[in-house]
Amino acid sequence: MADATPPLPQSAGYGVIVGLGAAFALGMIWVTHLMKKAFDEDNKATETFVVANRSVGTGLTAAAVISSWLYSTALLGATLLTYKYGLALGVWWGASASIVICLLSYISIEAKRKSPNAHTLLELVKTRYGTTAHILWVVLCLLNNTLVFSAMLLGAATAVASLTGLSVIASTYLLPLGVAIYTYFGGLRATFLTDYIHTFIVMIILVWLTIKIIAAKEIGSIGALYDAVIAADTNNPVEGNYKGSHLTMRSDESLFFGILHVISNIGAVIMDTGFWQKGFSADVAAAVPGYVLGGVASFSVPWTVGTIGGLAAIALEQTPAFPIYPRTMTAEEVSSGLVLPYVVQAVSGKAGAAALLVTIFMACTSIASAQMIATSSIISFDIYGTYINKTPNDKQLIRWSHIGVVATLIFISTLATAFHLGGVDMSWLLYVIGNMINPGVFPTLFTLLWKGQTRLAAIISPIVGMICGISVWLSTAWYYFGEISIASTGATKPNLFGCLVAFFVPLPVTILISLAQPQSFDWSEFNQIKSIKTEHGRAAQLGTDQAEWFTPERVQYMKRMSRWAAFWAIFTIVGHALLWPLAMYGARMVFSKPRNLKFFTAWIVFAYIFLWFTLIVGNFYPLFDGGLKSIWIVIKGKRGVHEGGQAVTGSPDSESSTEEQKVQTKDHAGPAEP
């Protein structure tokens, strides 16, 4: 049996993980220093560290959203599942990303309407429901961030091991190390900036790799890829797919995974305080367009990379160019995420392997920085600042944020190592995560969107949902496989049924309990949440004074943007889930010759066009949306703060805030009327 020899030496792995990580850390520390000088962006102030002074523009928000979905698990997982189940999988994965982000645009603007000074989701829970609910949400959110971060890190570490021979355990500890350093010093603003840099590099590499795969001599054209997949399906048909073909949207496993992943991703995002923080950090004029642009653009990465990489693996596996030829991949290699690394090695050798190594490093570290900020904020705000020191000052909160970053680094790396040694891989975590995180979705949404949810309903419903979801998950695994094991609990149907139950059971539970003893929450109570003042008494520029914030102009503007966000959320659900993959599932069609070869060609070409659109949104739009001006200000060293500590030049990306500047010109105060 031929085993794949890593195309790169271990030194390359150490060079990228340690060397590039150190370079990013030092670079971000330097940029943070320059921004403090140019814009008075003080990373030692909590408002800057946690919510970037609520001034991030549309372009940078969109880039950060795209970066947030450049999971190593998305790149590796979409490819391996396309290899197993066909091209329908990439569409479902892309939909699971775009739908939830466009939904988050609505949540983001609603949060600004009702609680402009909030720093974390958990502050809202504490203010509305009190201590018991707050502790419950601390557990739910930490569980979510822990599982998401671990899955991403484990998948990335396994891929790095296949490319360089570097130990998986060494990778789990070294990959997030540089991230912890620049996150420690730079906070959320550093996260936004590194998200942009990571997105810039990753998108260029992905565009190059996808073109290289099709152009490689072993494939040569879209038509040749089509022929190779058709030939492979003749010998090895896909069980559950229409006519056993990879080239059909009628794929039972893809449908099951699509439903599972859409729901699980909603849970992963709604229960991830990091996504809420990015919403809090966005300028009020940037929240909706930034999230919508980023959400729509994020569809292309799993779709295009998954489709081309997965189908190419089917074609290349039978050629001598494939690293493990003449044997095919084992189930363990596939589930560990090695499909894309093998494909890249086959078509471009060491150069492609090095490019993929950098891509995985960038994708991993981008997510890691957001997860560290989210977890450290929970530790500083919601544990230390709520239960250990109830009157913390700015300096103490920053200290505990730093402690949270370090603690997250150590704990997540250790947990990922434990998963690896225990036989748990990326695919298992990818499927299982929804059983644990979905129960909090509806109670969390109702916290911000429904006045009628009561304290008792908010506490009981997620607990009932989790008990029911885990019970269904384990009992279904026993029913189908006769055992409770890693293999049985990681199968599709047990997780599909468990995730559905965990997601939907809390909905009727919270409604029934709330209606039994009706109450109506006063949204103005969220205004108890205040900005954190620095040692010099200054607080964030926006949202500090309620009278200044809730002007009639701003209230009307936010209402209008809320309607637009709701439209895009509904439009994306209908377009990306119902009218595309679900409708084509019912069509019973295989992309077969001669007519459907043209359809398949158009499918691949459109996937490329969509990927280029994402490249433009993520790489170049932020430069035109205030980025170039901000860079010039930093180069000149122009200070953004003058007399009295009041900002007059704005902050990075402030050009995107034209509408916001308009609504700030009035002095009339008015209460929010969400």
What does this structure look like?
Pfam families: SSF (PF00474). It comes from Bionectria ochroleuca (Gliocladium roseum). This protein is mainly alpha-helical and 674 residues long. The protein has 2 domains: 10-369 and 425-432 and 521-663, Amino acid/polyamine transporter I; 452-520, no CATH class. The chain contains 27 helices and no strands. Helix 1 (10-39) crosses helix 26 and helix 18 (426-437) packs parallel to helix 22. The protein is globular, with a radius of gyration of 24 Å. The relative contact order is 0.18.
Question: Which properties best describe this structure?
Answer:
mainly alpha, membrane, DUR, transmembrane helix, Amino acid/polyamine transporter I, 0% strand, Urea active transporter, Na/solute_symporter
Short summary:
With 674 residues, the chain is an all-alpha fold.
Give the arrangement of secondary structure elements.
Blueprint: H1 10-39, H2 46-51, H3 58-68, H4 72-85, H5 88-114, H6 121-129, H7 131-164, H8 168-174, H9 177-215, H10 222-235, H11 252-270, H12 273-281, H13 287-298, H14 300-316, H15 331-335, H16 339-388, H17 394-421, H18 426-437, H19 441-449, H20 455-481, H21 486-489, H22 492-504, H23 506-516, H24 546-549, H25 552-585, H26 595-636, H27 658-663
